[in-house]
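Hey, can you fold this?
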Amino acid sequence: MQRYNILFLFLSIISAGITSAQVEPTLYRQTDKKELHQWVDSVYNSMSLDEKIGQLFMPIVEPNTTYKSRMAGYINNQKVGGLLFSKGSMASQAEITNYAQSISKTPLLIALDGEWGLSMRLSDAPKFPRNQLIGAIRDENILRLYGQEVARQCREMGIHINFAPSIDVHSNPRNPVIGTRSFGEDPATVAKLGIAYAKGLEEGGVMAVAKHFPGHGDTSDDSHKTLPTISHSADRLEKVELLPFREYIQAGLSGMMIGHLNVPALGTKGLPATLSPVIGVDLLHGGMGFDGLTFTDAMAMKGVSNQADMSVKALLAGNDIILGVVHQEREFESVKKAIGKGTIPETLLEEKVKKILSYKYILQVQSFKPIETQTLARRIHSPRAEWVQRKIYDGAMTLLKNDAGLTPLKELDKKKIASVAIGAPASNAFQKQLKKYAPVTLFQAPSAAGVPTAALNDFDLVIYSIHNSKEADASALQQQISKNKNSIIVFFTSPYRLEAFSASAAHAGAVLMAYDQTDFAQMSAAQALFGGIALSGKLPVSAGDFAVNSGMDTRKTRLAYSLPEEVGISSERLGQIESIALEGIRQRAYPGCQLLVAKDGVVIYDRAFGNFDYGKSAEVTEETVYDLASVTKASATLPAIMKLYDEKKIRLQDPISKFVPETRGSNKAGITLRSLLFHESGIKPFIPYYVSAIDKNSYAGELFGRRSAVYHVRYAGAWGRTDYRFLPSLIATRPSEGFPMPVAENLYAGKAMHDALLKDIIDSPLRNRRGYAYSCLNFMLLKEAVEHLTRTDLNTYVRSNYFDKLGAASTTFQPLMYMPVDIIPPTENDPFFRKQHLQGYVHDEGAALFGGISGNAGLFSNANDLAKLYQMWLNGGEYGGERYLSPETVKLFTTTKSSISRRGLGFDKPDPRNNNASPTSPQVPIAVYGHTGYTGTCFWIDPANNMIYIFLSNRVNPSRSPDRLSSLKIRERIQSELYSAINENNE
């Protein structure tokens, strides 16, 4: 009677929040009841008493041969209804699971104690973060996705139940057992996140089991070692500890674990809640309406293990399944004896066993098929698993301070940025990811005391990242940061470390909490600083000067980096791309290549294949910088024209003579900018640029002829001689004030060479018909127009207006002025004109004679940096929170098409009327625009699918012919794979 008086008092205090109505779990509600009852009754009626009793027990075993015979004893002798596997490997647990199910008459429930997935118990499983990091996420969809992925992995392992989530409210930092297992200290957030995760589990066919009812968060004792006491009042318990459990029940979730806790305000009287009917019967089932499956916490724990007849008491206290007793045979006999005496009524036994069988049916335990172990690791370590890991970390990043909107970082052209990684190795994921966004100078130091102070004085912004938990780092970093306000601190540590770094955080311009130092955390943090991902994370606990739920939101402003799953495409579906790329290398279409695909503002494919040369040479990486050839036209000259048009400094109907004085009075004078962009100017496709540079008196006869001792080198499909000399007034072998323009190694041109070549272009005859004919000369004239208008060279103009601001450090003309030669693959071995194997110098002869800066060729870049320019166009002229062009200008140039050819305003486009002549795959939409390059490059931008495709190679190495890249249609076939994947996803 006293028990009910205590409960009545408790219920009267919190009556507004409690309902006595039973909440039917969703898993149960959605099941065909007729089929369920038929199966349950059939199995139950076939059971002996021992088999019924056995269903109530779930022993804990290790998945190894040592435990195999013991486990077989549990199944054969005590007829246990399920198993909870402890530590092991995926393969060993799968093998033991197959064996266990094969010897059990009644299918077994297999459980996982996996609060952060399989890796909590299995050493070789995908590693998800602890719940404290999860507690920073405010996007419940990520939690649901996380639960679904854990469920998928569980089902692959034959697991039906996960003892998760822990929805204990972590209100005591000294708690020795909950800590990072909790989602945090705010009850409402713990409830929302726990429910979202649990729903994901159950949507994936795995029972979620919330723990540790009625709340293990506020204690400094460990129930593994003793019986903790929760000493709060009933009112406080309802507002904090019980709130997540109540909402979990109301959400229709199906599993609950009762903890070994003494809660005097609830009437436990020193008895563990596990064994207290006041908790399990009156409060959980009666008062809160839970109608799912109830588990004890492990009965071997010291908080309960000294209790006599513990299993009998646990069953009478409302538990359905007794977990992990020490003496399985003794506890089995104890329950059997209690049933015989009537202490446990047979009706109660039937009720519990039928409930257990019901969930076996619901969880499809009866449909078990042996686990295929050969491909198990690949199936579990899937791209989807990695994608979910990335999503979790992206969602958790927490911006705690952001003075003057420092991040996402902007105005990269005005910031010289350094990164100092404290406690990280030289090769770390954070700094590697930073380099994708901007030319960041990298430093590493074992501790804050070792930070290179003097070297940092030259930088406008320093990003300090803390990768360890050394106490001495706090004071040393404070001294460093106090000297310079322009700093950001990123913590790859527990949030509780913020207290030690309070002074440093106060001096920093921005503070980002990244929670742990996994590669995923480091990649997400770097993207967060530059705006690759939007930030919405909130601090799950109070730490230092920051209160719980602190955190600032930001918006996405730049490209993100993730997997194809981020945009709804399966990574496996893009697997054929690698095969095609490698086929090109095997067929000697190119020695190596770089591939990038971005969709919906996310880089989903960024791979490098092969080497710089055939045979043994440097490997191509994502940082490799290629000669873009004619991609220059649409990636440098055209952006310059677009900028000048946007500023109303030019009109498309303007004649070229308005901007290139040398054309006045020539047959080129009246040609409009529009016709040059459309390649409808009438200008010849090609002139032999090098002729003007050669001294005609230095040889007798012709430059080219039939193969002979004189004409002994093959060049551009002809046999040429090499016994000529360059005119010393145009070409020199050493750089000087008069010859500053690099043509190749030990070859330099001067202003006279530029003028002579420009004269050759202007003096060239026009074709009789003014229709479409592709010509590099058009863009050479456009480059002259840009330079006349801007009073600077094209390289300086596009770098200052685009590439420096975009953080595209590798995108430049004359690359050897800005980067080492060993990251640039060689192009052609030119035996005739430059008489050397070109590396770091532009392949195109005309561009070379212009000193490497030309309107038709000369630009170098890696794919990552090019994607920034192209994403800016897809964004309507904006990138990184800055506007480059008006939306109207972007639309005009990217959508206008010639009436007589497939060409756009400076861009190439698909040719839907002739697939064989089209530079693209037949599957691309008509709205696609881009360009190809002679060296084996291309880019295509698809506004209809919000996608960028970039292919870079040095297919002209060592010779421009044969052109196997084109004959094998490598670029087009890769593009086809992309569209097939998109179309399948849309279907």
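Oh, and this one too while you're at it.
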Amino acid sequence: MPDQTGTAATVPPQSQQSRTKPKELYPMVGWKYDLFLWVMGVLVDLFFREVHPRGTWKVPRTGPVLFVAAPHANQFVDALVLQRTLRNDAGRRVSLLIAQKSVHGFIGWGSRQVGSVPVGRPQDSAKPGSGFVYLPDPINDPTLIRGVGTKFGEGEGEVGGMIFLPSTKKETGASVDIAEVISPEEIRTKRPFKGKVALQQLTGRDDIDEDGKYINKQVHGCKEGFQGTKYKLAPKVDQTKVYEAVFDRLRNGGCVGIFPEGGSHDRTELLSLKAGVAIMALGALAEDPDIGLKIVPVGMNYFHAHKFRSRAVVEFGAPLDIPPRLVEMYKNNQRREAIGELLDTTHQMLSAVTVSTPNYDTLMLIQAARRLYNPTGRKLPLPVVVELNRRLALAYERYKDDERIVRLTKAVKEYNKQLRYLNLRDHQVQYARMSIPKVIFTLIYRVAKLLTLLVGVLPGLVLFAPVFIAGKVISIRKAKQALAASSVKIQGRDVMATWKLMVSIFLAPTLYHFYSAIVTWKVYQDRLWGHVPEWVPWWSTYLVMWPLMVGITFAALRFGEVGMDIFKSLRPLVLCLNPSSMYGIHQLRETRARLSAQVTDLINTLGPEMYPDFEKMRLLPDGARTEDGAAAPPPTTGRRRESDGSSGHEPPTPPRTRRNTTQSSRGLPRNESFSNIGGVGIFSTRPPSRSRSRSRSSSSGGAIGSGGFPVSGFTTLDSAGGFEMASKKIREAMKLRRRRSGDAKLEISDDSSEEEDAEYTEARKKYT
């Protein structure tokens, strides 16, 4: 372990150390881990319609691995999905970090079965302090905090603890570490509070700009008559045991997983990463440079994560070997720089396996554009959908100020607005192409099919309605509570899936027992009105009823899923028969066709500028490729491309942009040496100041002055080499998939050589 002064302590070779292995709080037991995941996996399969793993061949089969997963959009369900995917498709067991406040009840019992590592967070143990606090001299002495009726050092507040300001609707309350307790009414913090909201709370002044600077510097105190603000105090949290447990598991070749955003959320963009993930990786390598630790990014991509029978794609990125340079920096009193650089790189790695947009409206726009851009007219595999969403999101970020994008954005949003007005989905607009007789026949057929399925749904719907109703009511209530306690959540949907599963786990067996007991009692009383023969033991009824109840539940879920899809398809058919709405849906179909042509033409125009492999990878109908496998030239629609010899005006290419990956390192305290890892809360990194630019267009990860180190080996979207690697893997994977299924759902270039086949096979062998 590094010493407390920030310099590297001499660590003897692993074989020479007489280290006594510490007793683990939740040890990893293989059979318990597998049994628990198998049981919970049944519930995951029932909740999700499809969980599609992607890139599991990249996961190292041996050696220590630190998995960093994001976005954390589904609270405890994320952990189940990740652990189950790794166990089934990569053969690895992983210990996840879990907040100490969650280690109770069923969640606590479950975390013990899978060997989780509990983490205490200062904010989880924060309690309201006595009196009020304010800044007596915010300009000349901003770290001095004075109180009225406070009891610092008298059972409230301690050196190394933290002080928290109240949260607002728009942001989390600011917090700082306590450096000194001067008196019961005065403390000094390690650094001053920053930000407009925090300074207004502590001074009551209105002359503070958006950058958190005072306009009238002649006034040194608070606003006249200001009484102070309420606050919370948290004790000092020693994370040494947490890091020791992590280091021990990595040192023994195990896997550790962390959601580096800290808590779960339902935002569409990645949040700032916490310092703990970098401290774990660098600390483990500083202790033993030869353990071979790798960092693997995991993208948790959900389609309506909170809804029952939704879909998900769990994507694994290429593993990262941490440069020895960063480890040396970490060992030689440059911890902040090393941690910040690794956080930026980790953020960039996660951006390559997730779909991140600034807000929900942009995400809806990207998904609409992806649906409009599908020349094959076929349903695309989920991994291809995720890849298209990701590329379109990056392209929109780069070209969003282009006049053509602005016009098309407005048109697509108007199209989405019309869909919502008619309560239709994009794929249902195609029903307007059908003739009236075909519409009538389809409607009658689907109604008959729906009535048939209803026979299988009704028993389960009636018997287990309490589970469905309670799950929805409780999940909505918990979502409101989570939203009220957080400033990063939008609607609190990240907790809904967890509570739906929790309610089902406890209430469904209770109902099974209740119904089985009633039927068993009836058999005991009068042989179920004489329908059960006398030779049948009455107690055997209970044993028969349990599997029967489970079967009825499963049938109701499966039939209900199909029936709901059919039910949703009836509305557009009825609209096609209604004279008052028929014209509107036909107009909507024409609008969609026009928008689809515009989106396709614009993508074909701008795509080659951003993606070198565009001509080989773009979607095409069957037979729309040249003999050499390249895409055939697109038809000219209106504006011709410059490569076609057109002399039309083309705007200058905007500068290449990347997602801003420095937002995580910006949150690191500048005067914190990180020499004592036990004093660093694993989730304690503050988010970047609102006064800093939130633009995601600055480059990082190897660029000059970016603070990141080159990551061209795994940036699948930010370099020509990375694009080529990603394209090669996608082509090979799709070829293998077509060979197995015999149905080419997506036309991909077949110009790969035997050398590429050998390289792909060699890559799989490397990680298997």
